[in-house]
Design goal:
Layout: H1 2-10, H2 17-30, H3 33-43, H4 49-62, H5 68-75, H6 83-100, H7 106-113, H8 118-127, H9 141-149, H10 157-171, H11 175-183, H12 190-199
Helix pairs in contact: 2-4, 3-4, 4-5, 4-6, 6-8, 8-10, 9-10, 10-11, 10-12
């Protein structure tokens, strides 16, 4: 594939997130959603994880018009062994939510939070950070807090840390809301206490 060869020349062997993001955005701006998805699926087959990452971001860009791209993120990319690719999955999820509008994305946010795969659940809490800097959640901080707080029981420590950190982010602008939320929690379990300590660090 010509574009894949181009990427292998312009993307260095060392990690270059900014370049990955720039290349994906540039390609998306010049191509249709269908072209982005077709290219994304091809790039994902590369042995170069950064070229794969461009493909993952293109799935996020094409998801509004090609819903199968979001299914690919959820069912395939979430299984990738690289934590770096999982970070890009979170970015791709946020790109899709931004494209369709965060309020319109609420059903999808609930769906991904309910997924059995920890990488899928974490991609929501990580992807939308800082939640209250996002449109809709900026003026609906209580809803962002409610969505995140409901995940404090997550069986994965990996996810619970993400939830605690996301709530901590929000506490910098909305300390009283986070304080009130945390005061309602039963922290008798080590797991919930862990989330509470992270979330309440600045309150």
């Amino acid at each position: 594939m010509e574009y894949g060869r181009y990427l292998s020349e312009v993307i260095p062997s060392k990690d270059s997130l900014k370049l990955v993001q720039e290349e994906a955005k540039k390609y998306q701006e010049a191509h249709t959603a269908e072209e982005c998805l077709t290219t994304a699926l091809t790039l994902y087959q590369s042995d170069n994880f950064q070229i794969q990452e461009v493909g993952v971001l293109l799935c996020g860009y094409s998801g509004k018009e090609r819903p199968e791209a979001i299914g690919f993120l959820k069912n395939t990319v979430s299984k990738h062994e690289s934590w770096k690719v999982q970070e890009i999955l979170a970015m791709a999820f946020d790109i899709h939510c931004r494209t369709i509008g965060y309020e319109n994305a609420l059903p999808l946010i609930h769906e991904w939070f309910a997924c059995s795969d920890a990488n899928v659940r974490r991609s929501v809490s990580e992807g939308l950070r800082i939640w209250t800097n996002r449109p809709y959640f900026k003026s609906h901080a209580e809803e962002a807090i409610r969505l995140l707080a409901a995940q404090r029981y997550d069986p994965s420590e990996y996810c619970r840390k993400s939830i605690g950190n996301a709530l901590r982010d929000i506490s910098k602008k909305f300390p009283q809301l986070i304080r009130s939320e945390l005061e309602s929690w039963d922290i008798s379990s080590r797991e919930i206490r862990q989330v509470s300590l992270l979330a309440g660090r600045f309150v």
